[in-house]
Amino acid sequence: MRTRLPLMLLLALAVPAHATEVYRCVDARGRLAFQDQPCPPRSRQRILNLPTPPPAVPAPALAPPRPTRNAPPAPPPRPTLPLPALYRCIRATDHKPYLSTIGDPQPYAVPLAVLGIQPMSMSRGAPGIGAPVPPSGPPTNLVSPFTGYYTWVQDRCAPLPRAAVCANLRERMDQLDTRIEHTFQFDRAPLQHEAETLRAQLQNCR
């Protein structure tokens, strides 16, 4: 039985200790053949020693896939609180401005002298003597044995625009951070709670 083998494969292989004999035959017409038996008569013969192929090496076992670490969960979004309503008020007694969370402050009694009004003489009488009482109708003059007449006044307030509210919250946040930084650890809890409330409100100022 003749077996033809690729020429380039035979030339590329070296001869190891264990080899297989292959006959290289060239007949009278110059045709080349490789076979495992001696060449026929009138052929040029050459014996080649081909290496015996090594036993197949089993493929290495694949390592089990490493368990993938789950990415840490994303931090929950910070809670959002609605912006507080802030009002710019003008004090009735001295016309100085201040900020308030109440847009309709209650009337309060002040001595007439505070408003620059000369009180009437106490000898003319008055509807009542003592501490001021809440008004039940239009402003009423009250009398005090110490400072003269009182009258009812009320501060005037107007709502702040959104940008001004946000600016006020940021300013309070900066002041609060400074206070927390300079406060003992065991006294920080209420300040930190207030800071969390401000941060939740500031979420609406972006």
The low-confidence parts are: 7-16, 122-134
Helical content, roughly? Answer: 10-25%
- From the alpha carbons, calculate the radius of gyration and give it in angstroms: 53 Å
State the major sheet. Answer: 3 strands, antiparallel
- What coarse outline follows from CA principal-axis ratios? rod-shaped
Q: Beta fraction of the residues?
A: 15-25%
Q: Report the mean per-residue pLDDT as an integer.
A: 78
Overall strand count: 9
The tally of helices reads 3
Q: Structural class of the secondary elements? A: alpha+beta
Distance between the termini: 90 Å
Order of helices and strands: HEEEEEEEEEHH
Strand order of the largest sheet: 2-1-3
Fold and architecture overview:
The protein is of the alpha+beta class and 206 residues long. It is 19% helix and 22% strand. The chain has three helices and nine strands; from the N terminus they run H-E-E-E-E-E-E-E-E-E-H-H. It has helices at 7-12, 162-181, 189-202, and strands at 19-26, 32-35, 44-51, 87-90, 97-100, 108-111, 142-144, 148-153, 156-159. The strands form three sheets. It has a three-stranded antiparallel beta sheet, with no helix packed on it. Strands 5-4-9 form a three-stranded antiparallel beta sheet, with no helix packed on it. A hairpin with a 5-residue loop joins strand 1 (19-26) and strand 2 (32-35). The chain is rod-shaped and about 150 Å long.
